[in-house]
Structures are given as C-alpha cells and as structure tokens.
Amino acid sequence: MGMLYRRGRIWWVKYYRNGKCFRESSKSQSRLDGKRLLQKREGEISTGVFGGLETERVCFEELAQDLLNEYQTNNRKSSIWVRRRINLHLMPFFRGFRGVEVTTDRVRAYITQRQQEGASNGSINRELAALKRMFNLASEMTPPKTVRVPHIPMLRECNVRKGFFEHDEYLALQRELPEYLKPVLAFAWHGNHSYAITLFPIPKGHPHAATHPPVHLFASLAPQVPSFYSRWPCDAR
After folding, report:
1. Which of 172, 201, 183, 152 is CA-nearest to residue 78?
2. Which residues have a Cβ under 8 Å from the Cβ of 110 and sit 6 or more positions away?
C-alpha cells in the first residue's frame, strides 16, 4: 500500500515492490499530480512492468554508448557506419531524452524530420534499426536498463539495392580513399557494370605480394542491370 506525503511544498510518493521501499518525488506542488504518480507506479508493479527507478533515469546517450561498445567488443565491421548514424542523425535529435521518453510518437517525428532533410527511406531505416538495437540490447542486460522496447515503425523501401552501400557511405569511403583509387570507386558506383574489381596493393612478383593478397573491393558495389536496382515504382508491382 502506497502513501502520499509532502517535503516542503513538493508532494512525494512512497510504495513497495517485493518488500523494498521506494520514495519518489512528483516534482509538483499539486497533490493530484502526486496521486497520479502513485497510481501509475502501483499499476506498473501489479502488472510486472516496473523495473525500478534506475531504468527511469537511463538516458539516450547511455543507450547509444552501450550499442557502440557492443559493436566494438564484437569487432563488427559495420561499427564505423553505426557510429556515423548515431553521431550525425540520431544523437542530435534524441540527445537529452531519457529512454522511457523515446516513444513511437517521437520516433515518427524523427522520421518526418529526416524525410524533410531529404534522406531516403533506406537510410532512415538503417538509422531506425540502430535505434531498435539500442533498446533490445538494454532489455537484455542484467539488470535490464529498460522494461519496454518502443514500437519503431520501419519505412517501405522502393528501388532497393541488393548491395550494401548507401549513398552517404559511398561519399564517406570516397573521402577516405587515396587519390589513385577514387576513380575506381566512381567507376563502380556510377557505371552500369557487373564486373568485379580487384585491387592489387602490391604488384605481382613483389617479395611481399604473398602477404598482401588482392582486395576484391567493389564486387558487391557495382550496379548490375537489371537486378541490382529495382527501377519500377512500388505500386507498379
């Protein structure tokens, strides 16, 4: 059985779960706000969704860092792209929010903002997948950092490539490549070619050639006609 009490002008609530006492401020001078908070907590306890006050304090920045740590620990090759999506897009929008404040409505607002910025549905879906992975990872921890994974709607993608490069990823790779390789990348990206491009870091016959095997860099990047791009509108299928 919970109770309401005041500290100064602020109403506080006191309740129990599994014999453990919890005290929480309503952050309000209204007794009605305190009563609503108490009813909310008692409802969460009775339905088993109350994870403790610790989960209420977990912020988006912590969830994002946990995801980056998981990618780094498992040496995932896509970690550079996940970091870019978080730092360039997700973090500017969700920074300052607690995990419990990331609701489906806020996710939809994020989608709208990214569409207004000109992002493709494919790029937005990759960002939403990273966001969903954050919450799934948080729910798997001991103790869990969230008791609820919000519904994160995904967008329908038209003209889906079978390759694994998005346009922003192509631009990022182009910036990092040495000058003599940039034309090769541009050829693979813009040309309608199905050839696999093999790079030889060291010429054949060189003493160190055996320790530096050829790199099949763009076999999955070069567009193929007609299977690599789906050129028909979604509604035409």
Report:
1. 172
2. 90, 93, 94
